[in-house]
Amino acid sequence: MKRPVARAGALSVTSALCLAFSPYLAAQTAPAAPAASTDTPAVEEETIILSPFTVEAAEDKDSYKASSTLAGTRVRTDLRDIASSISVVTSKFLQDTGATNQQSLLVFTTNTEVGGIQGNFGGLGGGNGLKENSALLKPNQNTRVRGLDSADNTRDYFQTDIPWDSYIVDRVDMQRGPNSILFGVGSPAGIVNTQTITPNMRKNEGKVENRIGSFGSVRYSLDVGHVLVKDQLAIRVAALDDDTKYRQDPAYNHDRRIFGVVRFDPKLFGDSAHTSIKANFEKGKVDANRPRTMAPIDQITPYFATSSSNPLDPTQPAINRQAYDAWQFQSTALTNGANGNANMGWIGGAAVWNPWMNATMARLGSADPVFWYNANSGAPFLVQQSNMSTRWALSNTGSIDGGIDGFPFAHQVSINGYNTYTKNAEIRANALGLTNPYPGAQKNYYKDKSLTDTSIFDFYNYLIDGPNKYEKEGWTSYNLDVSQTFFNGRLGFQAVWDKQSYDSKQAMNLSDTPFISIDNNLNLIDGPAAYGMSIPNPNVGRAYVGSSGHYGNNESFSERENFRLTGFAEVRASDYMEKSWLSDLLGRHVFNVVGSRDTKNAESRNFLRYATDANWALMNNETANISQGFRQVDWISYLSDNLSGRSSAAGAGISNINARQSPSGQTIVKYYDSHWKRPTNPADPGYVNPATPWRNPFYTNLANPPESYESENPANYVGWTNTAVNILNADNGDINQLYTDGTKLKTVIDSKGFTWQGYLWDGMVVPTYGYRTDKVKSYSANAPANSVTGVASMNYEILTAPSDVSEGTSRSWGVVVHTPKFIKKNLPWDSDISLTYNKSENFRAENRVDYQGNRIDNARGETEEYGVVLSTLDNRVSLKVVKYETTVKDANLSGDPQVSTLGSNTYWLYLAEAWGAASATANMIGLTGNDTSGGAWYWDWANQPVSNGGANTAYGAMPRDPAGASIDAAEIAASLAWINSMQPQSFYDAYGINVNVANLKSSAASGNWSAPYSSYIGGGWSPSSGPGGVQAAGAGKIRGMYPVGTIDNVSEGYELELTARPTNNWNVTFNASKTTASRTNLSKALSTFIESTHQRLAGPAGDLRTWWAGDTTGTFRNNYNNNVYAAYIFQLEQDGQSASEVRPWAFNVVTNYNFSRSFLKGVNVGGGYRWQDGAILGYRLTKAPTPTDPNNVKLDVNQPIYGDSEAHADLWIGYERQLSPKIKWRIQGNIRNVGEDVGLTPISVQPDGSPAAQRIQEGMTWQITNTFSF
């Protein structure tokens, strides 16, 4: 029977809604249509229509196969009618596999990767100096889709920082590739969306679950729902306590959460309308000390080598358990005056230079306190200054010059990693005219090697850090959802408010790339034997780890608030005409409009975990700035006894740190007091004239030792003594005195979208079109720092005016063509064949800047996909095959621009400009006689021995002899060249570097350098601090953002997904992917910046010496070339190469069978098999001669180096039964990685194909889950 009244009402309300949203229709992306309903009006009135804004978990009950999703168009749509690549993980799949979070799920899904010890890739890149800080803090974000980038995480389709857990998840929808219908602003790789649970409106239900697992893991969860008014009001509460332990003792992850949701469905507008109000809340916290995925860097096995490591140079010395005196290690370089390579590890001349040796132990490069521990104790056995500070020392005129020239430069020595070793070996080979064994080493082709022998240190079973690092997360989430539909779901709107607060904190003692080495210092750093100061090192031969509390400590806070209004209307041709072939042709159409405002307030803070208070620096006449190194606290922890009597490191059984080592409070520190101890009155007994000539006994091996005076005689100074020092500790309440920088960034995204989905020819052809506009405003501010201490204050406000504004328009369209009915009815087993096409785009509005502070255009993602879908056996079996190509233009060069744009030394891109300005300033102030800070150790090049590029002039003395004057002229030329070509003021202002370009250029032009230091460089800097005393206020950020380089990413391949339920008891899913992902087109802005600086430093400006007056090999030219330009060339050579760790082929299969009869009734058995092809880990080298370097080599993209393929099997068996009419018990045991031992998997290789960095891959683990449902 026809119902013209109902039809007229439907049309009028539909028209009203369309008119209400008409302002958006010209500028929006379109969501997808609700599930189809019958065309017969009488049936429409009698059928219960599900809300178009909800997908009920019950629809997919007991199945791996989902039928509908919100991911296609934001309203409920049949998966068969969506052209884009969407996969749905049902609660049944989560239950069978035991997956509870991102890390345990994404190893099973199509063309996805996730890091971690249970993951299927490292996610840390393939270069040298891999860092896993971010992955340790937020492992759920260490993902990759289609070999491109990490996916965005969303929670009920709102972007989120909160890591999801299955205790409140009904299902997981995964979109691969960009889809602007969902998010015009977001990751082009796609999204991972979790749908949170809602109450059952018809019956009370609940469950209590306990899980025990490997290594003592215990998990409890509770989920209880209660109906207050049937079909109208219900609540549901869930809670979680998951204490996961790991093989690496004492690693853990303790996750505690509580969640509540209420749903109210009042009957307000009659049977054809539906009103629903839902509100949910979650609060959670995670305390963790997560396991490291990287094996420690091997800096221990070279200690035991008895012969050359270089087959092309048998004369290259081996360490062979030798111990070195740090003072002699450096001083013998002076015998090699002809080569000019001082302090580079020379032992008795170039012929026996040992490339394995390093002039600095751990981070002991300054003169700060070092806490020396045994691994099993939290109390240091010694606290001593790492090196002498001589800032109170006198010149021969009796004024303070800050140096005791009688002491040669010396640091405690150590063993290099493989990367530095190959660079040194290449330099040695070139210097001696030998065949270069490591071509291209200066380009970082050779990487540090991971330790592989667990008999040396068992990194599988022990966390090297022990209890000395932590990761913390906490959050609250609120969501209010009001939806209203009319006319049996044909017209409706949804208004949602979502608010999330999230914070995280991370602190560590070890660096993000820890190493294990051996102390091969013969003596302590107290002084050379020539002065009777030598003290034998009681710890020689002991294995150790070491670092400082200076790096890797951070906390962040974010608050997201989102408002979204969605409206839809369904229009049918049959509303306007009689049922006919024409009405079938025109079909029905679903229009969807959406408007939203997403606001995110984010704050990040970096801090020192430990540092001295300012009194320590002032007592030593050093700068009190907390970021300049002197106030940092270093530490060394010994892990073994003396190993020098062993022939090999194998079997050493080295310990991890197994005590909490946390410097704090008043501590007695042994330090060098550089005050003059002689009388200053010539009439007093014991008076010593600082100007009296003095022959330094240290240089008895030199025919013409440097000219010196009593002012340089160590015997005239107080020397080593003890003092009480206050150690600040962030963990003990001192964090406000330890902040080094902070940034606040507010982002507001206003979005409008329109979607149309049509069902033509009686649903045979389903086109979808979406249009969307997004406008992004950013507001930022950097924390102000105290001009004396450098401590950043967190009490500051964000800018009221936007620092950046960007806009973007994105479109999506696709079509699905099903088999015509007249053909389908002749196909066997109710089969259907569908063809799909999808083209979609989005952009990532990050308000990025390049390294010169210029704005970078938004990264844009675009995907094009062709697919075929086969459904058969009454839709019990579905197979989808897709050919795709996804491109991302102007993507970030790396995931962590702070550390990885050009490797771990990315900071050289901007700090070289700061340090060069400081170097030139110190030189000019000193050479014009205006230095009163004691900085001659830095600026007086002519004072250095000939081997250090000097002329042996008196320390800071004026006027010069001819040789000294010649060196002064070169120093002045280099300094003025730098100043006259330095970056503009806007560059320094962008980074918050306190340099006054105008004043420097003015003094350079006039020659008048009498102005105070602060007129050139602020922040309390003086030449005595050296260039490292100048830092960027925002730790490298510009307007609250780390600058980035960009590159284009391309991924293409095939994806296959098969989901089957042959019987009600049997589920099967299979997926496979073929992926080629590459990177090309390094950003022009970055290239121009680096090339122009490289060209500038090729001239006199590059002659500036970086760290001290005799640093002839450490010029700005050499340092820039080694730290920036070599890494840049490496990036250029990777143009067109595969992205790191991309596996060309991969497949996964999961199946489960439930027995419903016989004695096996209630039993379920299942398993999974995961296979991955060998990943491309690197490339071999090929010769590429240039006019200036006939021996130049480069990476050869035609010679890829593959890793091994991997295969992993999982098994499970379960049983369930009714314990009573209302209580069901279920038990299931899962084994993952059946029969496997824990092992290593390479993630990078050397050019010869041998492994470099390797990640730990977990072996077999188990878990048993008991569930009581009621």
From TrEMBL:
Signal peptide residues on this chain, from the entry's feature table: 1-26
Domain TonB-dependent receptor plug: 79-191
Entry keywords, A to Z: Cell outer membrane, Ion transport, Iron, Iron transport, Membrane, Signal, Transmembrane, Transmembrane beta strand, Transport
Molecular function terms from GO: siderophore uptake transmembrane transporter activity
Alphabetical list of InterPro entries matching this protein: Beta-barrel_TonB_sf, Plug_dom, Plug_dom_sf, TonB-dep_rcpt-like
One Pfam family here: Plug
GO cellular component, as recorded: cell outer membrane
Domain of life: Bacteria
Subcellular location: Cell outer membrane
Membrane topology classification: Multi-pass membrane protein
Protein name: TonB-dependent receptor plug domain-containing protein
